[in-house]
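Meet the record:
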Amino acid sequence: MPLTRRTLLSALPALGLTALAPPLRAQAPLSVVATTGMIADAARVIGGDAVQVQALMGPGVDPHSYRSTRTDIVALSRADLVLWHGLYLEAQMEDLLIDLSEVTTSVPVANALPQDVLLSHTDYESRFDPHVWMDPIRWTGVIDSIRAAMAQARPEGAEAFAAQAEAFADEARALDTYAGEVLSAIPDSSRLLVTAHDAFAYFGDRYGIEVAGIQGISTESEAGLARIAEVVDLLVARDVGAVFVETSVSDRNIRALIEGAAARGHEVTIGGELYSDAMGQPGTYEGTWLGMIDHNVTTISRALGGSAPQAGWQGRLS
């Protein structure tokens, strides 16, 4: 049975853990557990051989609805460092992740971003859109937050972490340059990105593309017939013929949208599958943060009438 809020100290005996694991030897890798693949990827790049990273959520997993398991609780409690996104992305786990500070270091890395770079949402009063990884420049702030958390947990690695984080941030800035170039080629009339849920607001804000998600910023929200009709109206008015499915969200609403447009005499096709709340398969280029964004940028540009190389920024897309 999935676990929601529970005081961690009282949960450990029930899981057969009478005490935390003994401290690791000085030269042993720093044990890091990250909630999302995007955070885990950054931790691996920044930490290199000095860290051992486990991600709780793999490809196709929706972090908005994810609930921790008993195995997760054990891994989290035994980690030297827990890195989670924050900004209410892990909505079903947030209380547990906060409680973890009783037994280990638990850091919501996106909460360190200044509020003036965050986007609010009319559906969620007093909360911010959590999908900051969609903008490479904003993501550099999270990269630095991860670096700081790792340096605090393992001070002797601080210099190496800083150098590797800066190199990763340089790659993010180079990817941003590529994205700006290929997305600027999309005609003005086609600069409309329609997806299953509203995960691309930071992407649209960065690259000047209007974004329409059928659901809200959380996949827990429901998309009604009225919302689908609104998006159909937008597609017809703008004469846009491509919409996008997401790897971690059901395509049911996108299919309904296509049918609704057809009933209006407007042909809409699926322009491709995008990575929104999860990356691609481990061991692939798309299974990295750089790869997922490269894939999204390249797919969106080509489907909406822009110009981008089929193999993407570094020629590595499958």
Observations:
- The chain has two domains: 8-177, 180-303.
